[in-house]
Specification:
Layout: H1 12-28, H2 32-59, H3 61-75
Helix pairs in contact: 1-2
């Protein structure tokens, strides 16, 4: 696993919780610089989450392809 400056989300529930927390913070903030910081952190974590998923798929592409081929064979 890559060492990210901003940790990827653990799962979709973690991503949703963080998004809702970001929205709640933005509704109560009046400091534009802090609002930008909150958005930047969320977006950076989202990027890390995406990178993590892509890397995991790349590492497991043989298993994924084998699984898809088995599924196709079963459907035929």
């Amino acid at each position: 696993m890559k060492n990210y400056l901003f940790a990827p989300f653990k799962d979709d529930n973690d991503k949703i919780r963080e998004f809702n927390a970001m929205l709640k913070a933005l509704l109560h903030l009046v400091d534009a610089e802090h609002e930008l910081h909150v958005i930047r952190v969320f977006v950076c974590r989202l990027e890390s989450y995406h990178d993590s998923i892509v890397q995991d798929m790349h590492n497991n592409k043989a298993e994924i392809v084998d699984g898809l081929l088995a599924e196709i064979k079963e459907l035929k």
